[in-house]
Amino acid sequence: MRFFDRLAIPGLSLAAVIAIGAATAWTQQHQTSPAALNIQAAAAPAAVAGLGDVDAPGTGWLHLEVGDIRTAELADVRLQREALDASKRYVIQFDSPITPERRARMEAMGVTLGDYLPHHAYIVVVSPERGAEPAALAAVDSVMWMGEYQDAWKLSPEIGNRTLYTPERQAMADRGEVGVIVNLFAGADRAAALEAVNAIPGAQIHYVSELGGNPFISASMPLNRVGSLASVKDVQFVEEAWEITERMNNVRWVVQTNVSGMTPLYDQGLRGEGQVIGILDTRINVNHCSFADTNPIGPDHRKILAYNESLGSASHGTHVAGIAAGDSGVDDNTRGVAYQSKIVYATWPSFTESAILQRFNLHHSQGGRLHTNSWGDDGTTAYNGLTRGIDVFQWNEEDSQTFWAVTNTATMKNPENSKNTLAVGATSPVPNQANHCTGGVGPTNDGRRKPEIYAPGCSTQAASSSSSCGTVGNSGTSMASPAVAGVGALARQYYMDGFFPTGEADAGQAFTPSGALVKATLLNSAVDMTGVAGYPSNLEGWGRVLANDTLYFLGDTRRLHVVDIRNDEGLSTGQEYFEEITVLGSGENLKVTLVWTDFPGAVGTSFAAVNDLDLEVTGPSGTYLGNVFSGGVSVTGGTKDDRNNVEQVHIQNPDPGVWTVRIAGAAVNQETQGFALVVTGDIEVAAPPFTVSTPNGTPSLMDPGVPESFDVRIAEGKENIVSGSERLYYRYDGGSWQNMALTHLGGDMYEATLPAPMCDSEPEFYVAAMGDLGTVRTAPSLGPDAPYQAAVGEIVTNVVFEEGFNSGSFPTGWSSTGIWNVTSSCSIGDSCDGGTWAYYGDTSTCTFNTGAANQGELLSAPLTLPTPPPGGTVVVEFCYTLQTENNPSYDIARFSIPGSSINVRMSESPTQWTTFTQDVTAMAGETVQLRWHFDTVDGVLNNFRGWQVDGVVVRASGLECEDVDPPCGLADLNCDGFVGSEDLAILLGSWGPCVGCPADLNGDGSVGSEDLAIMLGLWGPSNP
Length: 1024
Fold this sequence. Notes:
- This protein is α+β, with helices and mostly antiparallel strands.
- It is built from 14 helices and 61 strands.
- Strands 14, 15, 16, 17, 18, 19, 20 and 21 form an eight-stranded mixed β-sheet that branches. A six-stranded antiparallel β-sheet has the order 29-28-27-31-25-33, with no helix packed on it.
- A hairpin with a 2-residue loop joins strand 28 and strand 29.
- Helix 8 (315-325) packs parallel to helix 11 (477-496) and helix 11 packs across helix 12 (515-525).
- The relative contact order is 0.07.
């Protein structure tokens, strides 16, 4: 959708309305403060038939925005001899209000009543074949008049008489341009109307939607061309786009269109429904009207699904929540960006990797997928555990996206230096939203671009914690991050409501976007902040969010194409992904954005990037690498970016023709790397030759002696599939590749079946097909050079130690100090292991308040960690609840293993039992003790429940395998129950030295004539 991208909207005077079809002389005056545009035309008001002075409007009048029309002075089509035209719109006026009998009679006569016009009139369409004839209608005594809907009624007289406040609209007025909402008749031919509007010189259609049964077109065009809209048959009424300048409202329209009052995402029904925003901040005043509900907090609450702390009220958290998702039911400053979304809330965590990860995991488990954070650590710029915890969370939970307000100090700090978060700076308020207000300047220590995106954040009005329904103005990046997260919720809803690719909501097109796609969508929309020198830069990043520039809706010229590939289907080093994009015209810039959620870097490194993908865009004008810019646009040449996990290419006035987007796995150092690709412009996507994929994944673990099947999709594109080329290729010993046919399941679906492996097998495999023009495609994309792999056996987990404190006291060999005890008191619900637990707290008060600072430790008896099978793991696990002051400097709960580097500060978990897991594989075979230590540090604010620990377990897990007799008969190499031609093909394909090869039927380490003789002797049904 592109809704008034550069709109500053003037209008037309009443005189201009009247001048339809006549030669007009346009002159304009632009007043600067406030701005207004007045248009004079040659025609006079008397040119509108029926328009006159009205003393007492009522029956016999149409009260329209162009003025009061006396219908008795207009031609009555019932008095004409010509037949009525079914393609036209008429107005029929009754002498008194409509009754069901009158409506039924009209319908019976072939007159369909549409929009009501005061007084007692309707816009109608007629069906002459059903009896809608002039003479018949003239005989209906309740009908006073019937005439054609006139062109002179179609243009609002307010166009041109508006006061203009924003620089965008003032600039638009200076250019002689106007933005309009072109309302169509109910049932109008949208395509014909779009064609007619497009034919107006200089017109630009931004999107098409529907409101109250009437389609409408958002468009901009030269001011002196607006009059021609009235002659478009399907147009009912044209109005100037509205302009709202009230405080918080400016955030909502700035982030969508940057045109005052223009909120097309809301107009399309994207208000955050079905989306959940996680907020880590100071406490939210849930009684403020932006959040309040009579239902208890939880699934039935209109706004807050989970409040994971004791209730309270703080200015910062309430304000942040109001910007992101607040809604009092009134369109004012109490309404946030994604005002129909819901909230899950917790306070800030302690600054450790596990703490931040636990917080985000908790919110993710409660439905949160957009996570806004307006806090940080201004004392460091390192890629530390706090930063890494963010990257771990987003790598593990690909549906989630975090947003971070960058520091308000001068230079980039932590943890906005996380690779996967979206780092947000704050612009000045309207009318200076193109200027930087606050936000630290990048880059990060290792040269990555942060901040990345901006939104209004200074003098932002939102919910005030000190009132029941008031607002307050605050400034800082804290206000910008929730605004961008709110836009992220709208973008996420766009995909989940099925707007892509057609631009209309369609449940059949709906899909859940990855966090990377949400991030890529927002960054693709970002535009240069003209008040900041240089673009892109280490100050403004990629610019100010403008969602309208990326999201496509029906009727837009600027189209959208996206690709969303998850990590398990991603690229390995050396693999590539291609898209062919056809640029249809040079009027729209071509923008390509690549984002991937990178594997978390190691703490202590000075270079955080792990997996490096490269973006390359090639078209008629050359090849452009991601992030190689000069003068604000992409240029050819340069050096590829080796550290940012956001890469963009911007081409101004791109040459029409085919452009190729290439994504290369330059260095995928951990697992496989998924990505999100967003392309916008005047484009269409070329169909690929065909595609080969494994939509439901491939086996990663196989049982010995058991064949394993998986689904394959082979979808035709520009090429037809050569029958018989659909094959599975496999090898189990690193030798030569064998192959067998896929089983066709119908349509574009096939089934591949891997033969039964043995324990010492190392299965590798891929699938392939060939098109009728010779193209070969494989899955994975590099086929034999980087095949799928599987292990043989089963993951076995052994519990080697467990303690549930069910005896009522600490076990033999355990020791404790302070107020540690074993109890069933102070419960918040069933534990993970029985009815008693270890507790740091006073059971008489259910707090850790002793009247003074206190501390204590719980130390287990010595235990020897087991040695797992090769490739296995050993973990320590326990469940806990923790409720404290929740301050980084006080009430510190830590789990550690003395003598090791393991020393973890625990995250708050005040309302539920939470499971903590620590990998101790590196210590396998050692004798260790487990330690839980609590320290209040001070003697105040200790009236909280404290720490409960239960279900302590040590587990060893690993791959184990025991060979079984193969289920297939000798020589039945594809395990289909029959020794036949496919088995013969496998044997011949393995001819020669082949140690351990299934086709080596006599076990001599080679496939040859003796094996062939054995197979021929067993030809036919096989016997396992």
